[in-house]
TrEMBL record:
Record key words, sorted: ATP-binding, Cell projection, Cilium, Flagellum, Nucleotide-binding
Protein's name according to its UniProt entry: Flagellar biosynthesis protein FlhG
GO molecular function terms noted in the UniProt entry: ATP binding; ATP hydrolysis activity
GO CC annotations on file: cytoplasmic side of plasma membrane; cytosol
A Pfam family per the record: CbiA
Domain CobQ/CobB/MinD/ParA nucleotide binding: 9-226
One example of a Gene Ontology biological process annotation: negative regulation of cell division
Keyword ATP-binding among record annotations: yes
Length: 268
């Protein structure tokens, strides 16, 4: 069966806005909706998908840089029916600012396995380092996570501005996290969208919102995905809506870019 092979990077200007939790739960939800999914922890500064899953990986993304290691050796199966995970290495800050040959090697190795998946989710670190920008440019779609805090809005604007002005990227989905209700989410989205229209000449796409929910912090404490622990919680229902919207979008649009295009970014 031919797979959708859509890659998504989950980014933000500011840390602590919910990227890792959203990535993880979207992976579980997309999988529950009959997709083959792989989630890759690309936050090499503060890798913590493994902590949220309560697992201690033996190998990680960094090991893939050794010539004799195959991608299959670093993949952890979260569900036998097609939900996989590649862990990163915490504290490997020297890798954060990727050299082009390191990215090339990673891309070449990952390429051999990624065609098996419908969705490839990249959990990235916050901010605008070269490594982060390069991953964000390599995917079919980008989801920028914002919260209603003014600092989150200004920092996401800075991130979008760099990706637009320096790399000509103008497709961004916006997900507003930690909101009270839909009105608050729409208001935050509009503030960012107005600034992007006015100063960057681009229109952002509204992906939806995730409500503030104590169950999510509880899931973090228990080191289990929210979707597993509290599938009917507010935040989980919101994430299910978002996953369905993403599936719908990818079915209606013909995306030119499939898989990961790390190598292409370096040709620029
Ligand atoms: N919708 C939410 N409701 C309640 N708490 C949340 C929500 N989203 C995130 N959080 C809290 O924010 C913390 C940071 O989330 P995390 O996914 O690690 O952010 P990031 O990856 O962007 O740094 C979580 O541990 C959780 O306690
Ligand atoms: Mg994170």
């Amino acid at each position: 069966m031919k797979r959708k092979n859509i890659s998504l990077s989950i980014v933000s200007g500011k840390g602590g806005v919910g990227k890792t939790n959203i990535t993880l739960n979207l992976a579980y939800i997309l999988h529950s909706l009959a997709n083959q999914v792989i989630v890759i922890d690309c936050d090499l500064g503060l890798a913590n998908l493994d902590i949220l899953l309560g697992v201690t990986p033996k190998k990680n993304l960094k090991d893939l840089l050794s010539e004799d290691i195959k991608p299959e050796e670093i993949i952890l199966s979260l569900d036998k029916t097609g939900l996989d995970f590649i862990p990163a290495a915490s504290g490997v800050l020297d890798l954060l600012e990727y050299e082009s040959d390191i990215q090339f090697l990673l891309a070449k190795k990952l390429d051999t396995i990624l065609s098996k998946y419908d969705f490839i989710l990249l959990d990235l670190g916050a901010g605008i380092s070269n490594g982060i920008l390069s991953f964000a440019l390599s995917t079919s779609l980008r989801i920028v996570i914002i919260t209603p805090e003014p600092t989150s809005l200004t920092d996401s604007y800075a991130l979008i501005k760099i990706l637009k002005n320096h790399y000509n990227q103008s497709n961004f989905f916006i997900l507003v996290n930690m909101v009270e209700n839909q009105q608050e989410a729409k208001k935050s989205f509009e503030r960012l969208n107005v600034a992007c229209q006015k100063f960057l000449g681009i229109e952002l796409m509204y992906l939806g919102y995730v409500r503030e929910d104590k169950n999510l912090s509880e899931a973090v404490r228990q080191q289990k995905p929210l979707f597993k622990l509290y599938p009917t919680s507010k935040a989980c229902l919101d994430l299910i809506n978002i996953a369905k919207k993403l599936i719908n979008f990818t079915e209606k649009t013909t995306l030119v870019k499939k898989g990961l295009n790390l190598i292409d970014n370096f040709k620029k």
